[in-house]
């Protein structure tokens, strides 16, 4: 991890702080106190800068570890409060809970749904589903047909709106939002977008990313450290 000009803390400590914030229901001031108990003085505003810098980078580098889904996809949107207003987080998992993708949008409409589908399925054909389960929101049928017309989804892709299909992703929303700090509200769309990338990344890690064998908290932290080159001193 590169020692940037003006940064006076080592990489392991920075990544530990970022992991604490994204993994547990802690505020920046909570983490400030945890470090102070250890004789380390870190201002909460510094912790905020670390999260906004390294959370998106963690999510970006973890994408290469993702495994293809089983073909049966569940898509839904959940509400995220930003500066006192509700915004929309589109998310997709497969029926086994494997994470696929996500997108924070200001509105819930056809354009937003199309942006999400293109982000989730356009780049890699391995991630094109054969079945898609959604709720009965009006944007989804038109969006799916548009994606078929653009050859992003295969013509044989089946769209289902059974409520029972959505239970898994609704539970997954809860797992994601459980870690959001107690105030439950982001102060800007920019901050929300960057921080949510970190929350999603940690949830990917908790699910195992398809790794076999034991997947303890120590193994998860080792993966995060290796992603940032902290095991072999590779600069970020």
UniProtKB/TrEMBL annotation:
Origin: domain of life: Bacteria
A Pfam family reported for this protein in Swiss-Prot or TrEMBL: DDE_Tnp_IS240
Signal peptide residue numbers: none
Keywords: DNA recombination, DNA-binding, Transposition
Residue span(s) of domain DDE: 73-208
Protein name as annotated: IS6 family transposase
Organism annotation: Commensalibacter nepenthis
Keyword Nucleus applies: no
